[in-house]
Amino acid sequence: MTTHTEAEIASQPSCWRRAVANIPADALPRRGERVAVVGCGTSWFIAMAYAVLRERAGHGETDAFAASEFPHGRGYDRVLALSRSGTTTEVLDLLERTSGASVAITADPRTPIMTAAGDVVVLDYADEKSVVQTRFATTQLAMLRASLGEDLTQAIADAEEAVAAPLPDTLVQAKQFSFLGTGWSVGLAQEAALKMREASRSWTEAYPAMEYRHGPISIAAPGRVTWMLGAAPEGLRVQVEETGGAFFETTLDPMAELIRAQRVAVARAFAQGLNPDEPMHLTRSVILSS
Protein backbone atom coordinates (compact mmCIF):
# COMPACT_ATOMS: atom_id res chain seq x y z
CA MET A 1 0.00 0.00 0.00
CA THR A 2 1.30 3.46 -0.91
CA THR A 3 2.20 5.59 2.09
CA HIS A 4 1.09 9.20 2.49
CA THR A 5 4.70 10.30 2.01
CA GLU A 6 5.02 8.46 -1.32
CA ALA A 7 1.74 9.91 -2.62
CA GLU A 8 2.71 13.43 -1.55
CA ILE A 9 6.12 13.18 -3.19
CA ALA A 10 4.53 12.00 -6.46
CA SER A 11 2.02 14.88 -6.47
CA GLN A 12 4.64 17.63 -6.53
CA PRO A 13 4.65 18.38 -10.28
CA SER A 14 0.88 19.01 -10.26
CA CYS A 15 1.16 21.12 -7.10
CA TRP A 16 3.88 23.22 -8.69
CA ARG A 17 1.73 23.86 -11.77
CA ARG A 18 -1.08 25.10 -9.56
CA ALA A 19 1.26 27.28 -7.51
CA VAL A 20 2.82 29.08 -10.46
CA ALA A 21 -0.63 29.69 -11.96
CA ASN A 22 -1.92 31.32 -8.76
CA ILE A 23 0.59 33.84 -7.44
CA PRO A 24 -0.87 36.14 -4.73
CA ALA A 25 1.18 39.13 -5.82
CA ASP A 26 -0.40 41.61 -3.38
CA ALA A 27 0.56 39.57 -0.31
CA LEU A 28 4.16 38.67 -1.14
CA PRO A 29 7.20 40.93 -0.64
CA ARG A 30 7.35 43.89 -3.01
CA ARG A 31 10.31 44.73 -5.20
CA GLY A 32 12.73 46.99 -3.34
CA GLU A 33 11.64 45.97 0.16
CA ARG A 34 14.20 44.80 2.70
CA VAL A 35 12.86 41.40 3.71
CA ALA A 36 13.54 38.79 6.39
CA VAL A 37 12.33 35.25 5.69
CA VAL A 38 11.90 32.99 8.71
CA GLY A 39 10.93 29.43 9.50
CA CYS A 40 11.90 26.34 11.47
CA GLY A 41 13.38 23.10 10.15
CA THR A 42 12.36 22.57 6.53
CA SER A 43 10.82 26.05 6.38
CA TRP A 44 14.14 27.62 7.37
CA PHE A 45 15.92 25.81 4.55
CA ILE A 46 13.29 26.95 2.03
CA ALA A 47 13.72 30.47 3.42
CA MET A 48 17.46 30.22 2.73
CA ALA A 49 16.80 29.26 -0.90
CA TYR A 50 14.27 32.04 -1.50
CA ALA A 51 16.47 34.69 0.10
CA VAL A 52 19.29 33.98 -2.35
CA LEU A 53 16.92 33.86 -5.32
CA ARG A 54 15.21 37.14 -4.40
CA GLU A 55 18.47 39.03 -4.07
CA ARG A 56 19.83 37.46 -7.27
CA ALA A 57 16.69 38.57 -9.12
CA GLY A 58 17.30 42.16 -7.99
CA HIS A 59 14.19 42.43 -5.82
CA GLY A 60 16.00 43.69 -2.74
CA GLU A 61 18.08 42.73 0.27
CA THR A 62 16.79 39.49 1.75
CA ASP A 63 17.94 37.61 4.84
CA ALA A 64 16.89 34.18 6.08
CA PHE A 65 16.77 33.14 9.73
CA ALA A 66 15.69 30.26 11.88
CA ALA A 67 12.73 31.83 13.68
CA SER A 68 14.39 31.35 17.07
CA GLU A 69 17.45 33.31 15.89
CA PHE A 70 15.71 36.34 14.39
CA PRO A 71 17.63 39.57 15.25
CA HIS A 72 14.88 41.65 16.84
CA GLY A 73 15.74 45.31 16.54
CA ARG A 74 17.12 45.03 13.02
CA GLY A 75 14.97 46.95 10.56
CA TYR A 76 13.05 45.14 7.82
CA ASP A 77 10.23 46.36 5.60
CA ARG A 78 8.54 42.99 5.74
CA VAL A 79 8.86 39.66 7.52
CA LEU A 80 7.86 36.57 5.53
CA ALA A 81 7.10 33.61 7.82
CA LEU A 82 6.92 30.06 6.45
CA SER A 83 4.97 27.47 8.47
CA ARG A 84 3.16 24.44 7.09
CA SER A 85 1.27 23.82 10.33
CA GLY A 86 0.60 27.43 11.28
CA THR A 87 1.21 26.48 14.90
CA THR A 88 5.00 26.51 15.31
CA THR A 89 5.78 28.25 18.59
CA GLU A 90 8.91 30.13 17.52
CA VAL A 91 7.22 31.49 14.38
CA LEU A 92 4.12 32.67 16.24
CA ASP A 93 6.24 34.31 18.95
CA LEU A 94 8.26 36.14 16.31
CA LEU A 95 5.16 37.42 14.51
CA GLU A 96 3.72 38.70 17.79
CA ARG A 97 6.88 40.74 18.33
CA THR A 98 7.04 42.07 14.76
CA SER A 99 5.90 45.68 14.51
CA GLY A 100 6.26 46.05 10.74
CA ALA A 101 4.50 44.39 7.83
CA SER A 102 4.32 40.62 7.91
CA VAL A 103 3.03 37.83 5.69
CA ALA A 104 2.85 34.09 6.31
CA ILE A 105 2.59 31.10 4.02
CA THR A 106 0.80 28.12 5.55
CA ALA A 107 -1.16 24.99 4.64
CA ASP A 108 -3.85 25.17 7.32
CA PRO A 109 -6.31 28.09 7.48
CA ARG A 110 -7.65 26.98 10.87
CA THR A 111 -4.54 27.85 12.87
CA PRO A 112 -3.23 30.81 14.93
CA ILE A 113 -0.95 32.09 12.17
CA MET A 114 -4.02 33.38 10.32
CA THR A 115 -4.33 36.23 12.82
CA ALA A 116 -0.68 36.48 13.86
CA ALA A 117 0.48 37.71 10.43
CA GLY A 118 -0.73 40.77 8.58
CA ASP A 119 -1.32 38.82 5.37
CA VAL A 120 -1.56 35.06 4.87
CA VAL A 121 -1.16 32.89 1.78
CA VAL A 122 -2.85 29.49 2.20
CA LEU A 123 -1.65 26.57 0.09
CA ASP A 124 -4.12 24.06 1.50
CA TYR A 125 -3.98 21.93 -1.65
CA ALA A 126 -0.33 21.17 -0.82
CA ASP A 127 -0.98 20.21 2.80
CA GLU A 128 0.24 16.81 3.93
CA LYS A 129 -0.82 13.91 6.14
CA SER A 130 2.76 12.73 6.61
CA VAL A 131 4.86 14.26 9.36
CA VAL A 132 7.76 14.41 6.90
CA GLN A 133 7.32 17.58 4.84
CA THR A 134 7.83 17.23 1.08
CA ARG A 135 5.31 18.77 -1.31
CA PHE A 136 4.34 21.78 0.83
CA ALA A 137 7.97 22.89 1.03
CA THR A 138 8.61 22.68 -2.70
CA THR A 139 5.20 24.07 -3.67
CA GLN A 140 5.71 27.25 -1.69
CA LEU A 141 9.17 27.62 -3.19
CA ALA A 142 7.74 27.10 -6.68
CA MET A 143 5.25 29.90 -6.03
CA LEU A 144 7.97 32.16 -4.62
CA ARG A 145 10.27 31.48 -7.58
CA ALA A 146 7.46 32.28 -10.01
CA SER A 147 6.72 35.50 -8.10
CA LEU A 148 10.28 36.60 -8.91
CA GLY A 149 9.63 36.16 -12.62
CA GLU A 150 11.10 32.70 -13.08
CA ASP A 151 9.68 30.40 -15.74
CA LEU A 152 9.33 27.00 -14.06
CA THR A 153 8.32 25.07 -17.18
CA GLN A 154 11.58 23.12 -17.29
CA ALA A 155 11.68 22.67 -13.52
CA ILE A 156 8.23 21.04 -13.63
CA ALA A 157 9.31 18.79 -16.50
CA ASP A 158 12.37 17.84 -14.46
CA ALA A 159 10.10 17.09 -11.51
CA GLU A 160 8.07 14.71 -13.64
CA GLU A 161 11.30 12.90 -14.49
CA ALA A 162 12.46 12.82 -10.87
CA VAL A 163 9.14 11.30 -9.75
CA ALA A 164 9.25 8.50 -12.33
CA ALA A 165 12.90 7.57 -12.89
CA PRO A 166 14.30 4.39 -11.29
CA LEU A 167 16.46 4.96 -8.23
CA PRO A 168 20.11 3.87 -8.52
CA ASP A 169 21.07 1.10 -6.09
CA THR A 170 24.16 3.14 -5.18
CA LEU A 171 21.90 5.69 -3.51
CA VAL A 172 19.51 3.29 -1.82
CA GLN A 173 22.33 1.22 -0.35
CA ALA A 174 24.84 3.96 0.56
CA LYS A 175 26.30 4.13 4.07
CA GLN A 176 26.47 7.92 4.25
CA PHE A 177 25.48 11.05 2.29
CA SER A 178 26.98 14.51 1.95
CA PHE A 179 24.61 16.88 0.11
CA LEU A 180 26.13 19.92 -1.58
CA GLY A 181 24.73 23.06 -3.16
CA THR A 182 25.76 26.49 -4.40
CA GLY A 183 23.82 29.73 -4.05
CA TRP A 184 20.14 29.01 -3.57
CA SER A 185 20.63 25.25 -3.66
CA VAL A 186 22.64 25.32 -0.41
CA GLY A 187 19.30 25.50 1.39
CA LEU A 188 17.99 22.61 -0.70
CA ALA A 189 21.07 20.56 0.17
CA GLN A 190 20.30 21.11 3.84
CA GLU A 191 16.70 20.08 3.23
CA ALA A 192 17.73 16.92 1.34
CA ALA A 193 19.91 15.91 4.26
CA LEU A 194 17.08 16.56 6.70
CA LYS A 195 14.67 14.39 4.68
CA MET A 196 17.16 11.53 4.73
CA ARG A 197 17.52 11.81 8.50
CA GLU A 198 13.81 12.15 9.19
CA ALA A 199 12.48 9.38 6.95
CA SER A 200 15.28 6.81 7.16
CA ARG A 201 17.54 7.84 10.07
CA SER A 202 20.46 7.94 7.60
CA TRP A 203 23.81 9.54 8.37
CA THR A 204 23.74 12.72 6.30
CA GLU A 205 25.51 16.06 6.20
CA ALA A 206 25.17 19.15 3.99
CA TYR A 207 27.56 21.93 2.94
CA PRO A 208 28.13 24.69 0.39
CA ALA A 209 29.94 22.89 -2.41
CA MET A 210 33.11 24.98 -2.27
CA GLU A 211 33.35 24.40 1.50
CA TYR A 212 33.27 20.62 1.12
CA ARG A 213 36.99 20.51 0.32
CA HIS A 214 37.78 22.44 3.49
CA GLY A 215 37.52 19.44 5.78
CA PRO A 216 34.27 17.55 5.15
CA ILE A 217 35.68 15.68 2.15
CA SER A 218 37.60 13.61 4.70
CA ILE A 219 34.33 11.70 5.17
CA ALA A 220 34.26 10.52 1.53
CA ALA A 221 35.05 6.81 1.12
CA PRO A 222 33.79 3.68 -0.64
CA GLY A 223 30.10 3.14 0.08
CA ARG A 224 29.52 6.84 0.76
CA VAL A 225 27.85 9.37 -1.58
CA THR A 226 28.56 13.01 -2.28
CA TRP A 227 25.35 14.30 -3.88
CA MET A 228 25.37 17.62 -5.73
CA LEU A 229 22.18 19.66 -6.19
CA GLY A 230 22.93 21.80 -9.23
CA ALA A 231 26.19 22.11 -11.15
CA ALA A 232 29.33 21.03 -9.28
CA PRO A 233 32.44 23.23 -9.02
CA GLU A 234 35.17 22.25 -11.44
CA GLY A 235 37.34 19.38 -10.24
CA LEU A 236 35.15 18.35 -7.31
CA ARG A 237 33.92 15.13 -8.88
CA VAL A 238 37.47 13.96 -9.53
CA GLN A 239 38.57 14.72 -5.98
CA VAL A 240 35.65 12.79 -4.50
CA GLU A 241 36.09 9.81 -6.80
CA GLU A 242 39.79 9.66 -5.91
CA THR A 243 38.68 8.81 -2.35
CA GLY A 244 36.70 5.83 -3.63
CA GLY A 245 33.43 7.55 -2.81
CA ALA A 246 30.57 7.98 -5.27
CA PHE A 247 29.75 11.41 -6.74
CA PHE A 248 26.14 11.92 -7.85
CA GLU A 249 25.11 14.82 -10.07
CA THR A 250 22.41 15.37 -12.72
CA THR A 251 21.25 18.26 -14.91
CA LEU A 252 17.84 18.46 -13.24
CA ASP A 253 16.63 21.66 -11.62
CA PRO A 254 17.85 21.49 -7.98
CA MET A 255 14.26 21.55 -6.70
CA ALA A 256 13.49 18.52 -8.86
CA GLU A 257 16.67 16.85 -7.66
CA LEU A 258 15.34 17.30 -4.13
CA ILE A 259 12.41 15.11 -5.15
CA ARG A 260 14.84 12.33 -6.03
CA ALA A 261 16.45 12.69 -2.60
CA GLN A 262 13.00 12.45 -0.98
CA ARG A 263 12.31 9.23 -2.87
CA VAL A 264 15.65 7.75 -1.85
CA ALA A 265 14.89 8.59 1.78
CA VAL A 266 11.60 6.67 1.54
CA ALA A 267 13.24 3.70 -0.20
CA ARG A 268 15.88 3.55 2.51
CA ALA A 269 13.18 3.71 5.19
CA PHE A 270 11.43 0.70 3.68
CA ALA A 271 14.73 -1.18 3.46
CA GLN A 272 15.10 -0.76 7.24
CA GLY A 273 11.52 -1.63 8.07
CA LEU A 274 10.65 1.97 8.97
CA ASN A 275 7.41 3.83 8.23
CA PRO A 276 8.27 7.14 6.55
CA ASP A 277 4.87 8.55 7.54
CA GLU A 278 5.78 8.24 11.21
CA PRO A 279 9.42 9.23 11.77
CA MET A 280 10.85 8.59 15.20
CA HIS A 281 10.72 11.37 17.80
CA LEU A 282 8.95 13.81 15.45
CA THR A 283 5.53 15.47 15.29
CA ARG A 284 3.84 17.56 12.59
CA SER A 285 4.53 20.76 14.52
CA VAL A 286 6.78 21.75 17.38
CA ILE A 287 4.59 23.44 19.98
CA LEU A 288 6.49 24.46 23.10
CA SER A 289 4.85 24.71 26.51
CA SER A 290 5.09 28.07 28.23
Please provide a written account of the structure.
The chain has 290 residues and is α/β, with parallel strands linked by helices. Helix content is 40%, strand content 16%. The protein contains eleven helices and nine strands. The strands form two sheets. It has a five-stranded parallel β-sheet with strand order 2-1-3-4-5, sandwiched between helices. Helix 2 packs parallel to helix 6, helix 3 (42-56) packs antiparallel against helix 9 (185-200) and helix 9 (185-200) runs parallel beside helix 11 (254-271).
Short description:
By secondary structure, the chain is of the alpha/beta class. It has helices at 4-10, 12-21, 42-56, 89-97, 113-116, 135-147, 153-164, 169-172, 185-200, 236-242, 254-271; strands at 35-39, 62-66, 78-82, 101-106, 119-122, 176-181, 204-208, 224-229, 246-248.
How would you sum up the global shape?
globular
Give the quaternary arrangement of the chains: single chain
Count of distinct strands? 9
Strand numbers in spatial order across the main sheet: 2-1-3-4-5
Derived from helix and strand composition plus strand pairing, the structural class reads alpha/beta
H/I helix tally: 11
The topology string of helices and strands comes to HHEHEEHEHEHHHEHEEHEH
Amount of helix: 25-40%
Alpha-carbon Rg, integer? 18 Å
Strand content: 15-25%
Q: Terminal Cα separation, in Å? A: 40 Å
Largest sheet: 5 strands, parallel
- Indicate the low-confidence ranges by residue numbers: none
Mean model confidence by pLDDT = 95
